[in-house]
């Protein structure tokens, strides 16, 4: 079954639903590891640095975006790791997924920024197109 | 050591060279525009960008960060150039470098943490507003064609990146619109109308100023402002690059490196500069990570100027103004509007005060200093709130003190007690308080002695270790 799951999140409603599906798949096998990945976007780096007093606050504010997902995973007693990547979300997730050994990538169909998706296309679409392993897009 | 050099310089050769070229292309319009803002020949900004980028690639503390002539620095120079001319600017640039080296040596970078983010947000917003205002004379009320060119430039710089990612959009706008202007003979002001470009390498020169105290008195205030603002923007930029790359950098080395770069640049006819947020972000996004990217950016910039110098003077001013409007929009922190609503009132006030003072004085350093002082006052006011609650406990009266007891809170501390009590057992509890300084001990003394004068017995309890030490050392009441 699926042993190593990459769960890409951004703190949105959709990524919570993706987490729900990841939990379903993970509970099918006994020693499954979920890697929860959040991409700190390049285009927001300036804003985020400006609006936090120091590195620690920045780190905490990012962890806060993951914490609802973490709570869900903890509630089911699943083992997981959290990883914060830096870059442009689509290509960064693709790169990370293809470099690691994942059995499946799970991602929400939409993120936080609807306007950007209209112009640039959605992250989930890019991930589905370019990741080598199976991809589950959660609506 | 060799490991470090290898990692800083040669761990990402392909990415660094490509990103460096992209940055060089993006730097040209900015270096020219910032020279025009400062009121000097475009060559001064171009030489500065070349020298600073090349030197900082060796001396800086943050690999992958781009430094060159910047808007923040150019805006500070305007009055100096207007009144005293280029040579005084070069002298001021050298002195700026010396001051920054001293800042680096004395490890001033650690004081950056005393600058609250409200001030930094105010800083970038004020910078954006000033850059925008500096463009207004270049497009307002000149001709209809000027407006058209500004508008077309803006459309190009915002739409083209959706389709072409490899070439910086501002450069596409410049090439396209300069060709159009030349081909159709439209009458527009050009860069050449505001200064000259020479296709030559910078040469070593000593600024032609009298070496007197009077000169020093003229340039020192400018140099100090330049040094502060340059370091502020450089350290902010290095934090942003740190975050984007997920690596650490040496802030004191960066301060020293900025100083060395500015000192040498002054001797080569360039104006003072610092790290650039926008260009550094472009560099990292384009794949630049090491020192090589900054070096390539500087070298390729100079190469382009030598090859294309004659074409640069043909660039229409409205195109440059359009690009600068884009730069100011990119510099502005647009989440400030929600920040004003959501952040604590004191932070929002500090941010707005910083912006207003900068815009009124045209001096970024004044706004920053005022912002820091204002936020320090707010902080003291906030932390000096002290609470004393009274409780009856059997025959005793218990006063519970909560808060920080120091020079700013002693008055409200003393006033919180009703000192006209008589013949009672009084206990003052300090479990939730901290005694910080001599005036705090004095206040505790005063309260106890006043109570005792009226024949009360007073005991104090719950002092934490360091507060107790303070009291034991300085207080009078137990003698």
TrEMBL record, chain B:
Entries under Pfam families matching the protein: STAS, Sulfate_transp
Record-linked CDD domains: STAS_SulP_like_sulfate_transporter
Organism lineage string: Bacteria, Bacillati, Bacillota, Bacilli, Bacillales
Residues covered by the STAS domain: 386-479
Membrane topology per record: Multi-pass membrane protein
TM region positions: 43-60, 88-106, 118-136, 142-160, 167-186, 216-238, 259-282, 294-313, 320-340, 352-381
Chief place of localization: membrane
Keyword set, alphabetical order: Membrane, Transmembrane, Transmembrane helix
Subcellular location: Membrane
PROSITE patterns according to UniProt: SLC26A, STAS
Entry-linked InterPro entries: Membrane-Transporter-like, S04_transporter_CS, SLC26A/SulP_dom, STAS_dom, STAS_dom_sf
Protein name: SulP family sulfate permease
